[in-house]
């Protein structure tokens, strides 16, 4: 399966010292999952009943994690994990896995990735902070702004003009079209 990852690091705050790990496995129910989090690795096996596919991935991590402090979220499309790094360091891990060879299914999750020097300014991915934004992403209600008395405008921008076709008669022809008509 496709595996996406991103990370944060902090020498002072353990809550900001973790790995985001997402395993893309559509239509795998909670009952069909075997997930084993160990300090040195993650092993996942799951079966999709609708797609008739069995997924398996074993990852030996670059450094140790704390399985007890890590969190797992199961969705209809994937398994999302927030793996707590065991050692507090300011530096990012240079890679996710202990082995430096590239794996075709392992990719950086650029939706969650933040550069090392910008991680303190980055907002957390905690959706609970957005509250009740309603409508247009927190935009204020514009119904009371006095726009009720505004005239309807046509595509020409003139409120009295309903027809654009009458104006076309006064328009000169395009360059080169006059020469074609003369022939």
UniProtKB/TrEMBL annotation:
**Per the record, which residues fall in region Disordered?**
117-183
All residue ranges annotated as the CS domain in the record: 1-97
Output one GO MF annotation. protein-folding chaperone binding
Where is there biased composition of kind Acidic residues?
159-177
Entry's SUPFAM superfamilies? HSP20-like chaperones (SSF49764)
* Biological process, per Gene Ontology: chaperone-mediated protein complex assembly; protein folding
Q: Which domain of life is it from?
A: Eukaryota
Annotated Gene Ontology cellular components are: cytosol; nucleus
Family the entry assigns: Belongs to the p23/wos2 family.
What is this protein called in UniProt?
A: CS domain-containing protein
Species name? Hypocrea virens (strain Gv29-8 / FGSC 10586) (Gliocladium virens)
């Amino acid at each position: 399966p496709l595996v996406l990852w991103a990370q944060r690091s902090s020498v002072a705050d353990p809550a900001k010292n973790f790995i985001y790990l997402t395993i893309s496995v559509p239509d795998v129910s909670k009952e069909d999952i075997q997930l084993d989090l160990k300090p040195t690795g993650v092993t996942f096996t799951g079966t999709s009943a609708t797609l008739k596919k069995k997924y398996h991935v074993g990852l030996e991590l670059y450094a140790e994690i704390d399985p007890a402090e890590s969190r797992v979220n199961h969705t209809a499309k994937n398994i999302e994990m927030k793996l707590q790094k065991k050692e507090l360091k300011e530096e990012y891990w240079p890679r996710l896995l202990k082995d430096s060879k590239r794996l075709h299914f392992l990719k950086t999750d650029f939706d969650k990735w933040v550069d090392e020097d910008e991680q303190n300014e980055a907002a957390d991915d905690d959706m609970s902070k957005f509250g009740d934004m309603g409508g247009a992403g927190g935009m204020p209600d514009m119904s009371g702004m006095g726009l009720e008395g505004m005239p309807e405008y046509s595509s020409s921008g003139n409120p009295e003009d309903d027809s654009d076709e009458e104006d076309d008669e006064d328009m000169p022809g395009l360059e080169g079209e006059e020469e074609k008509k003369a022939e």
